[in-house]
Amino acid sequence: MSSSAAVETEAEAPDLVCELDSVQGIVDALTSVRWKRHQDAVVELSEHGIVIIVEETGCLQAKVYLQREAHGRPRFGASLGLFVDCLNTFSVPGRSNILELQYPGPDMQLLLRSVDSPDACIYAEIRTRIPETISWDYNFEPAGSTPLSFTVKSAALKEAIDDLEWPGSSIQIKLQPTPPSVIFKGEGHGDLQIDFNYYANTDLLIAFSCDRQISHRFINFHLACHATTTLPSASTDFANHRYKYKFLRATTSNIPSSVIRDNRGSKLTIGRGGMLKVQHLVSVAKPSIPHPHVDSAGYQQPSRIAYIEFFVKPEVEDESVNDS
Amino acid sequence: MKFKAFLTDNGINLLEKRILPALDKMGKICHLYFTRDHAFFLHNLLNSDGVQSIAQFKKESLFTDYRISSQNDDKIAFSIDLSLLHRALRSILAIYAESRDFNSNGLQIKVQIRRRPGRADLEPLSRADVQELQLALEVSQEMPATLVKAPDLNLLQNFVDRMKHVGDVMGVTVSKYGDLHLQISTTLITLGAEFRKLMVLGERANGVDGDGNLSAQTRIERAVQRQDAMTVQASVKHFFKCLQYSSAKPDCAFYGIAPQGACLIVIFQFFIPGTRQTDKSISLHCRLPVLDPGSN
Questions:
Q1: Cβ distance B132 to B193 under 8 Å?
Q2: Paired residues of A111 in beta bridges
Q3: Is the CB of A6 inside 8 Å of chain B's CB atoms?
Q4: Chain-centre distance for alpha carbon B248
Q5: Which listed site, A132, A221, A278, B280, has its alpha carbon 20 to 30 Å from B46?
Q6: Contacts 24+ apart (CB under 8 A), A153-157
Q7: Which comes out higher in pLDDT, residue B63 or A10?
């Protein structure tokens, strides 16, 4: 850099330099973890790429994984809402879609820049802070030797949870082996029960797993249910836990419309102690080659998909596993 | 007072499809001001709040057989509800379209002003008010020394629409080099867009060579220091509101800052259909109030 003309001589190269394309897709992915106005996020690099973590202390945590080539391993805190609203200004249609991120700036800011042409650019600087320590309460462990999970069409899940607002109570999620089904139930000033029956609603309840040998990758349609194998009686549930409505709601309320359009599935897993993990896949970019149909198998390059994970703590109560 | 005129086909088209819907977005109520030669739609000229909008038409661009007389130097002004006017015009056109088979004559829409004694809401403006309006109009004709041509209006509109979520106030800089710079700056975030090498009308200057390597912010600061640029603070909402005039389908727009930074001005130009020549019989511009720099 010329010493006379250049004003900003950076003392050291920034830790993080990466390029984002498909900014709108990233905005969609991050929007899915916005459940209230002010949320502090922690942004860090891991082997997955960029991870953004937000939490509601003691109750709910969400992570967004964006697979990106990036240099450096920084970690900083920033306001999620501001970050998303700022990214949104970069994703104006008709403009160059490449956004360059740098960190840290001279004042520890996150620097963003999008260059349309030599004569037009958009730039931003977002103040960061020392990140909060992420609580490890959400260290998810399988419930016993049998992983308990099911995959539901995201649209159906969102609709079910939206409907369950009506009872005005916490929501019970039960996994039953015979017939293999998932029951969502709310009992408040009214009762509402929504059943997903593996054999009856095969296009809604896509997979139901209770066999350890079944892979955890929930994109696979062909997993069979072995629920009826060795269990003694029909009345024994695999799992039966209650979750506060507003936290369950947070896991689907801002699912981007692309998820619904792409016909994706969301996987729910119940871990030890009743911790609920909800996973979504969000397309970050349209496939470059148009596919006649994109199903949940989602034939797309990995970097075109963002992974969203929510962890919801159950309501503390006596965990009786049978009869309802 | 008397006013009678017939809307031309061009006038009907212009008003119904482009002008009235756009002006309505600025504000439902405005002043309609007729003089011997012009018709004006004026927003906020008599109060000091909000964005001022001046839409000026030479009478021939809208009317034929234009007759006006009043004791106030043949000037007439009154408040009007634009949405009602638009709706009335649309209804007439709809009825005409339906009855076309029966009436082979071209549509003639006569515009007339009739006094309605006892209806305070339909009173034309008093002589004093008209005087004030005329004065405000003359002041509003003051143009900036430098105007830069706006980048694509749809793009700008989209961008500013999203900027609204980030902050309320933005700095707007116009430079003699042909730069337009928009920036929101709060304690948590700075967000800006820079458009360079835009067409310049009026006073211009050549940029300094070394500036190309600087950041947008530094470049602008230096230009202001050299007095080659001016920055004012404007409301993002106001800025966005003016961009709604893109629905009137202007052919281009220009931004400038009034002398002494009194206000931010955006001028919309229409070309004579089929040419790239400015139609001087129509002029549409907005004047945005400037905020205190400390109001962020």
A1: no
A2: A102, A125
A3: yes
A4: 10
A5: B280
A6: A153/A203, A153/A204, A153/A206, A153/A263, A153/A264, A153/A265, A153/A266, A154/A252, A154/A255, A154/A259, A154/A260, A154/A264, A154/A265, A154/A266, A154/A280, A155/A259, A155/A260, A155/A263, A156/A196, A156/A204, A157/A252, A157/A266, A157/A268
A7: B63
CB–CB of A126 and B188 under 8 A?
yes
- Per-residue pLDDT at B28 exceeds 90: yes
Bond before A14 cis per omega within 30 degrees? no
The span from the first CA to the last CA of chain B, in angstroms, equals 49
Residue B210, chain A, CB below 8 Å: the answer is yes
Distance (Å, whole) CA A294 – CA A280: 15
Alpha helices in chain A (DSSP H): 23-31, 80-90, 154-163, 245-250, 257-261
A185 neighbors A172 (Cβ within 8 angstroms): yes
On chain A, the residues whose CB falls within 8 A of the CB of B182 are: none
Query: CATH 3.40.50.150: does it fit domain A148-320?
Result: no
Q: Nearest C-alpha of chain A: how many angstroms from B168?
A: 13
Partners of A49 in the β-ladder: A46
Whether the CB of B192 is below 8 Å from some CB of chain A: the reply is: yes
Q: What is the mean predicted confidence (pLDDT) over B8-21?
A: 91
Q: How far apart are CA B133 and CA B135, in angstroms?
A: 5
Strand partners, B287: B52, B265
Could you tell me the residue ranges of all domains in chain A? 11-126, 148-320
| Gap between the Cα atoms of A299 and A287, Å rounded | 9
Q: Residues of A with CB below 8 A from B214's CB?
A: 5-7
The string of pLDDT tens digits covering residues A43-98 is: 987 666 889 999 988 789 999 998 877 777 788 999 999 999 999 999 888 776 78
Yes or no, beta carbons of B166 and A82 under 8 Å apart? yes
- C-alpha distance across the termini of chain A, in Å: 72
Q: Is the pLDDT of residue B26 over 90?
A: yes
Instruction: Note whether A226 and A148 are within 8 A (CB).
Output: no
Distances (CA, A) of A238 to A117, A271, A311, A317, A320: 58, 11, 19, 17, 11
Q: Which residues of B touch A124 (CB under 8 A)?
A: 189-192
In this predicted structure, the answer to whether residue A283 has a pLDDT above a threshold of 70 is yes
* A28/A44 Cα distance (integer angstroms): 19
Q: So what's the pLDDT on residue A178?
A: 73
Which residue in A7, A88, A125 is closest to B190 by CB distance?
Answer: A125
Asked if A8 and B158 come within 8 Å (Cβ–Cβ), the reply is no
Could you say which of B155, B188, B216 has the minimum Cβ distance to residue A92?
A: B155
Class of domain A11-126: alpha beta
A1: closest chain B residue by CA: B213
Name the average pLDDT for chain A.
77
Say whether pLDDT at A224 is over 70. no
Alpha carbon of A6 to those of A2, A71, A111, A304, B200: distances in Å?
6, 25, 18, 37, 27
SS3 state at A289: coil
Q: B162 to chain A: which residues are within 8 Å by CB?
A: 85, 88-89, 92
Assigned token pair, A179: 């017939």
A93 shares contact with chain B (CB less than 8 Å)? yes
